[in-house]
Fold this sequence. Notes:
Blueprint: H1 6-15, H2 18-35, E1 40-46, H3 50-53, H4 61-65, E2 71-74, H5 76-94, H6 117-120, H7 138-143, H8 145-165, E3 167-170, E4 173-176, H9 177-181, H10 183-190, E5 199-200, H11 202-219, H12 228-234, E6 239-241, H13 248-257, E7 264-265, H14 267-284, E8 286-292, H15 295-309, E9 321-325, E10 333-336
Parallel strand pairs: 1-2, 1-8, 2-6, 5-7, 8-9
Antiparallel strand pairs: 3-4, 9-10
Helix pairs in contact: 1-2, 11-12, 14-15
Amino acid sequence: MEPKNPALSQLVRTSFEPEEAERILSGFLAFTAEAMDVNTTVGLSLAGPFAATGHRLDGLAPLLEGGFVDWVVARGEDLYLDAETGFEHAIRNTEGSELAEGSPGSTRPDPSRGASAADQGEGSPHTAVPDTAGPRSAAAAGSTESGGAASAAAGSATTSESRASERVRIGDQIFHRNQVLSTEEFLGRLVVTPPFQKTLATTELNNLLGRFLGERDRVFGLTAPTSVLAIAHKHKIPVFSDTPGGSVVGRRIAAAALSGNRLVLDHSRDINLAAAIVLRADIAGRSVAVSIGGESPRDLLVQASLHLERPLGLGSCFYSAFLEVAKPGRARLASRFRSHWGDSAPPSVSSNSRPTSPSHSSPPSGSRKDR
């Protein structure tokens, strides 16, 4: 059996040794037969040297937009670096064209304005402006009293407008413009705002962050989401972080806890929520998984299915197909297809090769309606 696109076969066969190329092709073809069914829920774990090398997760974006992935596990540092670099790249591309000078999206400071009260750390948004016009005669003062009052009012309005433009409303929160332009600072400020003052699973945390990141894109006039988290929030795709503490957001949460911040990440909720996705998919259709890069993000994919059997005692809910790709740079792929008998299923698993489970006409929550 060959892929419909001959260029794909040619690419794989010219990139790998013959035996390895055939193994890769057969694995992907068998997996595609399982994954493309409308009632199939696809989980994806992603690990690699993305943050270490400064690369984004932009290859994941079209899979989320196209509805080919239903839930994701990725490292926190990779997700948050993707948000930072994606926004910076979009701002650079739009500066000087779509974004006007001095607008909330412009990163160029206005030299006509001094440091704002927020920049100076002042508590009041108003700053007294000294009169530099020099002494005036009583007659001049009398004849220009009304005009001076109008000028003062206009000047006050201009000052208020300038100071207001330095503050940006993102959702129901107000931030200083410089805090919003820096993604690290923006995320750090977000985790101490009221919507985050509770116990959250990492998927709930990422959903909230995606909401505010998407709103930031809209406020700055960007036509498309600039991060995987914003796209996932838009399409209601759960995104788990296996290691939130190893990221700038995790460190910000830990630091804020020393000052009484009430945001707590509960990893027990992560495993229960992931297991619920697998269970619902197994009842309504089938569940398959793809692990790219392995390592700790893969562990949540595996543990989600094992958790249902032990200790919850809800029966075996193994993935009908589990495709594993080696770490980037090692140029090898391993495919393993699982059924209710464990790892004994043959490489070419068909849709009727596993015991039947209760089936319903409607797809599981979060699954694609069509492909």
